[in-house]
Amino acid sequence: MNILGESVCIHIAYDSAIGVIDFWVDDTENKTAYAYILQRIKEHGYVPICCVSDDHWSIGSLLKEEQIPQQLCIFHLLRTLQTMLIKENFFFSEIPYEHKVLYSRIKWIFKTKNIKDLPPKIEYFRNIQKLWKTSKQKQVLEWFWDKLSYAVMGLSFAEIVPQTTALLENLNGQIKQRLKTFRGVKSEESLNKILKILFFFRNFK
Question: How far apart, in whole angstroms, are the C-alpha atoms of residue 163 and residue 53?
Fold first, then answer.
């Protein structure tokens, strides 16, 4: 987002059942801004049970410090996985044939909807992972085991925890579209007013 040519970042605390809880505008996406907005919502009695994020280091580091469970967006995880496996070509980019089964099995696990289905999937994967022996595949396997608990964290809660940041991505798109109707945002104060109105009407649709 730009204010008179200067880039700013809108940090949004969003509850999948309530809507926007709070937001904060800062120069960049950073840990201090996330810590501040977390402090603000806690002061109002809101305690997050699990946070869905895109795996940005700043929020990940904060959630670890605050001991708040983190569900990583599986869309972002699969995008990272594709980047790790993809083969660049002059005409197109695709996952090479020798990596496609590995990709599909990881995707299959990440997209698990019921926690009861997870143990047999994990056991199956453990039994076949010896098939992948290249350095690239070993790198992906290491990444997979490192990210697995965060990819399925939401399944361990009685409440419905989204597996993606799709709701927030949709909100970001609405913000961009709404601001296009204005001839630029003149100040941070103006941006805050616009966002308050937008979030108010979105929450009470």
Answer: 9
**In terms of domains, do 31 and 81 share one?**
no
Give phi and psi for 70, each to the nearest 5. -125, 125
Judge if 117 and 50 occupy the same domain. no
pLDDT tens sequence across 63-114:
999 999 999 999 999 999 999 998 655 455 788 899 999 999 999 999 999 9
Report the predicted TM-score, pTM, of the whole model to 2 decimal places.
0.81
Residue 88 per-residue DSSP state: E
Residues 137-190: pLDDT tens digits?
999 999 999 999 999 999 999 888 998 888 888 887 877 777 776 666 767 777
Q: What is the rounded distance in angstroms from the CA atom of residue 100 to the CA atom of residue 110?
A: 15
Count how many domains the chain has: 2
Does one domain contain both 125 and 60? no
User: Does residue 152 share a domain with residue 78?
Assistant: yes
Q: Whole domain around residue 182: which residue ranges?
A: 2-71+164-203
Give the torsion through C-alpha atoms of 163, 169, 171, 172, to 10 deg.
Answer: 150
